[in-house]
Write a structure and sequence with these properties.
The chain has 185 residues and is α+β, with helices and mostly antiparallel strands. 16% of the residues lie in helices and 35% in strands. It has one domain (44-184): Jelly Rolls (Sandwich). The protein contains 2 helices and 13 strands, in the order ααβββββββββββββ. Helix 1 packs antiparallel against helix 2 (23-39). It binds fe (ii) ion (FE2). Fe (ii) ion (FE2) binds at residues 86, 88, 141, 143. The site of fe (ii) ion has 4 residues, from strand 9.
């Protein structure tokens, strides 16, 4: 597989968005680009691990589109950590660089109250790429590192990736969370 630099990956996504592709088309076409991006990376900078321990995982900005149309980031996961249960308003393409990670999807009520039902965890090995598409009520999930070793994943979202809707799985109640980037390339 011919690898892609981050710069070429970003340029290819810009071109797809400029062509007016919808979310489904975008994720379908970004998956092979993400596989080629992963093929060119051995690891992310050591500095991205700084702060692990204070936070379960670090969010590290690789590219922010000037018009806010998409964001590329690396997440470095501490051992045995998990995101909260959340959803995505935008499309997303998630690739695994180091160590297997797992995704647990949830079935739940569209809005408001009622407990969420977890589906069996899906393991994503290094090189694997997963996608999310709207509507957000259909993409409720959490991502976790099932190993004791730091894991690294590369995420591309169709927004600035600064806001997240988090669920209490016992009640289905949601709250908006503001997210920060711990490091940038
Ligand atoms: Fe997610």
């Amino acid at each position: 597989m011919e690898s892609l630099t981050l710069e070429d990956y970003v340029a290819a996504i810009e071109a797809l968005i400029d062509e007016g592709k919808d979310a489904q088309e975008l994720v379908r076409e970004i998956v092979p680009l993400k596989q080629r991006l992963l093929a060119g990376w051995r690891n992310v900078p050591e500095s991205f691990s700084e702060g692990l321990g204070d936070v379960p995982y670090t969010r590290n900005l690789l590219h922010a589109d000037a018009e806010g149309r998409f964001t590329v980031m690396a997440i470095v996961w501490g051992g045995r950590c998990s995101t909260p249960v959340h959803d995505h308003e935008s499309w997303g393409v998630i690739g695994v660089l180091r160590e297997p990670v797992a995704v647990v999807n949830y079935k739940g009520p569209e809005e408001g109250h009622g407990n969420l039902e977890p589906l069996p965890a899906v393991t994503l090995d290094p090189g694997a790429v997963a996608t999310v598409v709207p509507p957000r009520s259909q993409n409720i999930h959490k991502m976790l590192n099932p190993t004791d070793r730091p894991a690294v994943t590369i995420h591309t979202y169709g927004d600035p990736a600064k806001l997240c809707r988090v669920y209490d799985p016992a009640t289905g109640r949601t709250k908006q969370m503001e997210l920060q980037f711990h490091h940038a390339l």
